[in-house]
Each structure stands twice: as structure tokens, then as C-alpha cells.
Amino acid sequence: MKKNTFIAVCFCLLVVTHSDHQISRRSFYLFFPPSAVLQFTYGLSVPFVLPRRSINITWAFQAQYNLPRNNTLLQPSTIAVRSNSLNFDLPRVTFYEYLSRILDSIGLNGKHCVYRSICEIAEIPMYKKDESTLEKIVEFLFTPSLDLTHKEELNSTVEQYQSGFTKKILRAEERGKSEGKCDEKYSKCIISLVDLMTVLYVT
Fold first, then answer.
1. How far is residue 175's CA from residue 191's CA, in Å, rounded to a whole number?
2. What is the annotated signal peptide range for this record (predicted)?
3. Are 126 and 136 in contact (CB under 8 A)?
4. In this structure, are residues 61 and 41 in contact, taking their beta carbons and an 8 Å threshold?
5. Is pLDDT of 27 > 80?
6. Among candidates 98, 131, 96, 126, which has minimal Cα distance to 194?
7. What is the structure's pLDDT at 65?
8. Whole-number Å distance between alpha carbons of 170 and 175
9. Which residues touch 95 (CB under 8 Å, ≥6 apart)?
10. CA-based R_g, the chain, Å
């Protein structure tokens, strides 16, 4: 009888233990540790085959989102989509400044290479019949007269400096159209950026 009672007690304990195991739940957390982020990275690489060389132009994009670490971050927020701070328009002169600094950082004479590129595009325009998208972009970027003029009235010190830079840029385009010989005029630039992105046609 005692043996049967012991077996019955053990069976009940097993049932209770099994039952507790089935109805137990694991905890799931809605929040994340500090500095946790969700990140998406993607890129596009386009090869351009040129005579005796090839160039890969790569665009890389990254989106990063901070994950919530407390309940205050779950409150909806209003984002002013049309606020002035989101309107981004890079002036052409500023673009040339950035480009010249990049060229300076790799050991070239940045401003003279910008002048030479503008001069060469003006000297030998793009071939309109078979020009590629890349050539259209190059022509647009290195034709400053599309949206710059000599008649800009500027007052501040920075604007006066940009005005002098603007005059040199426009002068480079005029010299390309009238005189040519851009490699001699801007000999401090030892490489033609235009030749790296375009091919000359003999017509």
C-alpha cells in the first residue's frame, strides 16, 4: 500500500511539473540596448570601358535607424517635410570649390584642373549624336555659363572671393571657345579629367 501511495505521489508531481512547463511563458522585450541600430547598406557600380583603361563609378547608400530604448521614443513626432532646412541646392561655384579641394588632397593642382576641364569642354564640345548620359553630365557640370554670369553683385567677403573664382571659371570657358590649347594654358594640372570620362571623335 505504501508503495502504491509513493508511486501516486510521484505521478502527481510529474503531472504538476509537466503542467507548469506547458503554461509557462517566455518574456519578450520591446526595447533594445542603448546604441542599437537597424542599418541598410546598398550600392550600385557601373563600369565604363575607355581606351587603355577602365573606370568603375560606384554609388553607395546607407540608411540607419536608431532602435527604441525606452517608451518615450515610441511617441509619434511631426517632421516638417517642406521646411527650408530640407531644401538642398548646391551652388555651382561651391561644387567647383569642393572638387578642387578633393583634387588637392590627391596631389593635383585642384583649381587649375577645374579650369582645364572647363576649358577643354568649351574647346571640344560633346558629340551630340552619340553622347552618353555620362558625357551629358560632364558637359553640364563643366559648363559654368549655364547659370553663372559676370554681372553678379556680391557684398560679403566670402561672396567677393567666390566672385573672383567665378570670373576665373568663366574666363576658362571663354578661352576654350576662342583660343584652345587648354593643356598649355593650365599646365599646372598634369592630367585631363575630361579624357578620363570621355572619348574624342574625329569628324
1. 18
2. 1-19
3. yes
4. yes
5. no
6. 126
7. 82
8. 9
9. 141
10. 33
Residue with cell 503542467: 19
Beta strands 37-50 and 53-66 are antiparallel
Residue whose C-alpha cell is 559648363: 143
Element (H, E) at 59: strand 53-66
Please tell me the distance from the alpha carbon of residue 163 to that of residue 184, in angstroms, as a whole number. 25
End-to-end CA distance of the chain: 114
* Sequence letter at residue 80: A
CA atoms within 13 Å, Cβ hemisphere of 158: 3
Q: What pLDDT, on the 0 to 100 scale, is given for residue 119?
A: 93
Going by the DSSP 8-state scheme, the letter that residue 67 receives in this structure is P
Q: 135 vs 48, 112, 141, 196, 197, CA distance in Å?
A: 12, 21, 10, 11, 7
Question: Could you give the CA distance from residue 58 to residue 16 in angstroms, rounded to a whole number?
Answer: 64
- What DSSP element (H or E) covers 49? strand 37-50
pTM above 0.70, yes or no: no
Contact (CB, 8 A) for 62 and 41: yes
Cβ distance 45 to 56 under 8 Å? yes
Q: Does residue 115 contact residue 172 with C-beta atoms inside 8 Å? A: yes
